[in-house]
Amino acid sequence: MNPRISMITLGVKDLQKSVAFYEKGLGFPRIDSSPGVAFFSLNGTWLGLYNRDALAEDIGIEARGNGFNGVTLAHNVASNEQVDDVMAQAEKAGANIIKPAQTVFWGGYSGYFKDLDNHFWEVAHNPFLWIGPED
Alpha-carbon distance 10 to 2, whole Å? Predict the structure, then answer.
């Protein structure tokens, strides 16, 4: 297997609100998609938004569930200041700040927010490992 994550699909309760959060609130570039689903380009992978109940049905599981499911999504940036900027942008877009950005035990700087459907996002600067453009 050639390891890669080509797409992350999030089950959402209200597609229109979630699209607005990611597209207008966070500035994710939306790409053309059929009705009932939304796709965003993420520099080498894609983010998909799909109705939570329909996604659970496609998998063959119950849609009910709450709490922490053991998964977080991460957005790494090139500086502590950029972490603060992204966290502020997410909060302005309607995200719930779970852990404000701060220096963390491993020597980096990060914070966590939850999107409109309680998906956890970490925004981090890792001074020891940076893979990405200098933005």
Answer: 23
Q: pLDDT value at position 64? A: 80
67-89 tens-digit pLDDT:
777 789 999 999 999 999 999 99
Question: Considering the entire predicted model, what is its pTM?
Answer: 0.85
Domain 73-125 in CATH 3.40.190.10: no
C-alpha angle 12-13-15 in degrees, rounded to nearest 5? 70
Structure tokens at 83: 């972490």
CA trace torsion 29, 30, 32, 33 (10° rounding):
150
Compare 2 and 16 and report the one with higher pLDDT: 16
Contact yes or no for 89/25 (Cβ under 8 A) = yes
- Residue carrying structure tokens 């994710």: 28
Give CATH for domain 7-59.
3.10.180.10
Compute the distance between CA of residue 96 and CA of residue 90 in angstroms, rounded to an integer. Answer: 8
- All structural domains of the chain with their residue ranges: 7-59, 73-125
